[in-house]
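hi support,

uploading two proteins for the ticket. first:
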Amino acid sequence: MTTSRVPRPSPDGTRDDATNARLEQENAQLRHAVNSHATVDQAIGVLTAIHQLAPAAGFEVLREVSQRTNIKLHTVAETVIAWALGKTLPEPVGRELDAAVHRRSRQQETSDGEAS
């Protein structure tokens, strides 16, 4: 016996309107998640290249900036990408980005020193 949350299509192969609406909503949410993930990955790449951070540290920087400014992570990532392309960082994002990069750089230096 198989159970599934997704109702089976009717014998003629169609689904009801509620099922179609739910599937369309899930599809839109998945597309948004994939796009947001790609944006965050690109912003991590910017931070890795410009500030010579490890990718994990780049993510932590974005996360910290997001939490400290109360701006969604993907929006912070979009802002960092725009900055890399020549736009100005909004003041709270720039301030928090500098502080987070500084904290992560110090942590990275400390762990690099311990590994030697």
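and the second one:
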Amino acid sequence: MSEIDPLEVPALLLRMVPETAEHIAELYEMPAEMAVTSEAAQYDTFALLQDAFMEPIVLPELRKASPDAELMGRCFKFVDLLVRSSTHALTGPVYFQVLEEFFEPVPLEKAIPFMSKATRERTAEMLIGHENPVPQELLQ
């Protein structure tokens, strides 16, 4: 797999999860298509992941009785691309803004079916590192 350029992450997020458009536009106070090419979005992966992806899209969906499988599939494909990156500019934000959200058991339990093996492994490592319980399903 080719490495993702951190500067391309905002546009990649908008392409893979177009439901983030409204939140990206709000965060950067300009149309999403313009925002993802702006320096603000390109250099603020932490805010982008938290304020345009996790808080408004992923977490509310995972808190539903039946999360939208197609939407969550796309969201976790995006997460997996970041998790598998060797670039700290991507792995740091994905750990702090995405994986740490799974310290809460309910979203984690609902997220596991959508996680790739790499994402499950990184999430388990993070939980163990913070001395949190690791659900058996995460280790499979």
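thanks. also noticed: Residues 100 and 132 are 11 Å apart (CA to CA).
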